[in-house]
Amino acid sequence: MIERRKGIIVNVGSITALAPGPWAGAYSASKAALHALGDTLRLELRSFGINVVTVAPGGTKSNLGNSSAAKYDQIHDWKYYKQFEESMRARTNVSQGPGATSAEELANKVVASVLKKNPPAFLAYGQFSAILSMLYYAPLWVRDYFYRVVMKC
After folding, report:
1. What residues form the membrane-spanning segments (predicted)?
2. How far apart are alpha carbons 127 and 94 in whole angstroms?
3. How do residues 111-134 score in pLDDT, each as one tens digit?
């Protein structure tokens, strides 16, 4: 890409990197790291004609989400977390529920955006992307309230 002075790198992060909630710490942290890498690469590679786009999907129906739900079947072995089973299941189910974006719809949106003459540096799309984007800018007590009271976590 550098030799051609042209190219695009697309990193798929997550909207949870902006407003991480309970029961997804490692996932949210890994996506936040990917967002930071994308921000850095975008600046470093711009002078070579390479665009970097970070995609932050909201709730998207996927095999990852489905396999996440299956892990709770072994929760009887989780001495300290058993009391949170309902909340943990709800967290997983909400991202895979009826309002979740289909993977095909997300892919179509990403491809259309990335192929534009001037692709966006950041693309948030799908279920919960608007509310979690707003929570990113809100004071922490607002975010905590949202997860504790609204999401019952």
Report:
1. 122-142
2. 9
3. 999 999 999 999 999 999 999 999
